[in-house]
């Protein structure tokens, strides 16, 4: 269970939200929506331990998030190239947390030839697959998927969410899907819907 208790966060002393309480179960896809600028990304990053809290706490199974090692709540960026070292080839990026078995790479449709390329030499959809698999290699309890398919075509979007739905169930990973796409969330959410 990933919980936020009485959470507040924002910028320069101005909270975007406060007194926010939620609990997310593992093995389900939850949805987070809200108007542009409401603080969805900030909340997602706070839940992953990447944004300082102005109040409250984030608990994973009743305990604070660890400060070292692989993050158990992995944050997935809308634009994965911003979260990749441009000087590293895909093989090194993919194995950043732990080596990825070949069978898993193939299941994700990540071609062997991509491994020798740099991030800017893959398409947005290809990069997002790499980003998701890299996060899964860290063996997370939760993924925060921040608009991860917003810039992809319908087919790539459907493929990525089919993969994530299956993995969420089979590996008991909770996913928080952040999206402003009114059509997407009803299709993928199996858990709670949160509006900020
Ligand atoms: N480093 C920063 N310093 C000051 N304000 C910031 C900073 N980063 C973001 N903000 C502001 O915080 C607010 C919330 O941003 P956030 O990205 O969390 O919203 P969001 O709900 O995810 O928006 P969108 O749907 O447009 O992606 C916005 O008004 C944004 O301009």
From TrEMBL:
PROSITE patterns hit by this protein: ABC_TRANSPORTER_1 (PS00211), ABC_TRANSPORTER_2 (PS50893)
A molecular function (GO) term: ATP hydrolysis activity
Domain ABC transporter per the UniProt entry, residue ranges: 2-196
Entry keyword set: ATP-binding, Nucleotide-binding, Transport
Single biological process term from Gene Ontology: transmembrane transport
Similarity field: Belongs to the ABC transporter superfamily.
Protein name: ATP-binding cassette domain-containing protein
Classification of source organism: Bacteria, Pseudomonadati, Pseudomonadota, Alphaproteobacteria, Rhodobacterales
């Amino acid at each position: 269970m990933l919980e936020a208790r009485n959470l507040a966060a924002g910028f320069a002393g101005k909270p975007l939200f406060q007194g926010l309480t939620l609990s997310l179960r593992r093995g389900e896809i939850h949805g987070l929506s809200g108007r542009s600028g409401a603080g969805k990304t900030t909340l997602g990053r706070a839940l992953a331990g990447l944004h300082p809290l102005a109040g409250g706490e984030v608990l994973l199974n009743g305990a604070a998030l660890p400060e070292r090692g692989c993050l158990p709540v992995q944050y997935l960026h809308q634009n994965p190239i911003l979260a990749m070292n441009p000087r590293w080839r895909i093989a090194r990026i993919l194995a950043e947390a732990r080596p990825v078995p070949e069978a898993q790479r193939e299941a994700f449709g990540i071609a062997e030839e991509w491994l020798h390329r740099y991030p800017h030499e893959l398409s947005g959809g290809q990069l997002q697959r790499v980003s998701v698999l890299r996060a899964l290699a860290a063996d997370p309890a939760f993924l925060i998927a921040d608009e991860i398919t917003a810039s992809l075509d319908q087919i790539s979007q459907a493929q990525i969410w089919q993969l994530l739905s299956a993995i969420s169930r089979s590996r008991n990973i909770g996913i928080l899907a952040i999206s402003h796409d009114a059509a997407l969330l009803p299709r993928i959410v199996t858990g709670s819907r949160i509006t900020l």
